[in-house]
Write a structure and sequence with these properties.
Layout: H1 2-13, H2 24-30, H3 38-46, H4 50-56, H5 60-75, H6 84-91, H7 96-130, H8 134-142, H9 144-148, H10 153-157, H11 175-188, H12 194-209, H13 214-233, H14 237-252, H15 257-272, H16 278-281
InterPro entries: ARM-like, ARM-type_fold, PP2A_Regulatory_Subunit_A
GO cellular component, one term: cytoplasm
Protein name: PP4R1 phosphatase
Length: about 280
Amino acid sequence: KSMDSTLHYIHNDSDLSTNSSFSPEEERKSKVQDVVPQALLDQYLSMTDPSRAQTVDTEIAKHCAYSLPGVALTLGRQNWHCLKDTYETLASDMQWKVRRTLAFSIHELAVILGDQLTAGDLVPVFNGFLKDLDEVRIGVLKHLHDFLKLLHVDKRREYLYQLQEFLVTDNSRNWRFRAELAEQLILLLELYSARDIYDYLRPIAFSLCADKVSSVRWISYKLVSEMVKKLYMASTPTLVIDLMNELVEKFCRCHKWSGRQTFVFICQTISEDDCLPMDQFA
């Protein structure tokens, strides 16, 4: 009786089918599962209703977003259809804190859902977060490698064109954003071919090496040295030669002392990390 009355209250007091073409009965069936008590799940799903959030607690949507990966893990990927609408509602919430919370956990949700559901339901949300406020973008940036490694190769390559957009931030003084980008690019080297690294990641790395903030530059020296190592071990040796020639031209012969100093630091990192045989280094 108690559960029935709860269900009656939820379905009459909150419109769960606002954005759906299903009838109320079909909508109800689409959210039925047998892992947890249905009334408990319905209560959770109802919390994203805007009218309830305004009357109960303005923070409730953020708490729902925080709990969602745990709920998805509990229900299993076979019951994702119960949560999909709620996830999309939260992903488009007006409060950036709600979207930020989801951005920080989207890689975890991708592991739970698997590649097919991720490609169909999470990639569009991920793409939306990439164009969001910096407070939201940092969430996907911090786990960029974790998310992209779960995608198919073709889908992963599509993001090569967007990586340079991370160099642009709402606030240019937000240097930690660029430092995080450099850290992620080091991890991303393993996911892409030598040609893709040379064509798309190299220009970003060189830009970061000339950053105004020394913390960003130091991480970028490591990025370039790892890039040299990856290209040297690839089957196309001409790429690493071209990269080293560009390092000499861009930094060693730079008219600014800071550029020449950058060249010395990159050489130091390449030498310390054994990225090249010494004869090749010489």
